[in-house]
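Researcher: Here's the sequence for the chain we discussed earlier.
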Amino acid sequence: MYINTLCTNDSYSTSAYIIHPLRTLPPTPPISQVSPQEAASRISATGETYKQEILDDILARDPNAPITIYHIGDTDHPDHWWDLCAGPHVPTTRAIDPKALQLETVAGAYWRGDEKRQQLQRIYGTAWESGAQLQAYLTMKEEAARRYMLWVGWGGVVCVCGCVCMDV
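Model: Thanks. This is the structure I predict for it:
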């Protein structure tokens, strides 16, 4: 169920990979609250050190903090996946309109912004209430990109955003 490495060109197939389960998952709310000990036990069983670090940070801020887990898939299924979460959440993934969801780009990021730590992959996406809202957002982004220009002209004149010109 895990995807190892993505590039921006994979966004269409990755969108399909994410959207498909939205309609096939059970309609029950995929959220449960567990004790810190239960969360630590689950994390230990999976060997996910990042989750353990996040749990430790939550408990350092508030030892009595509620620990919420978000489930993807049937908990008895081998591909079941879960994560720590802070919310807010939709009542069920079926509430997400696949036509209103789009993965935008991918980027490298160091864990917790520390270049001495492992580099991970960050996936950026956007979700809207409707496909029409998504299309309006994408149109706005295209228009902003079209208007933002960095021109290096002959004679050493630099025009940024089509509005500021200076001699260099």
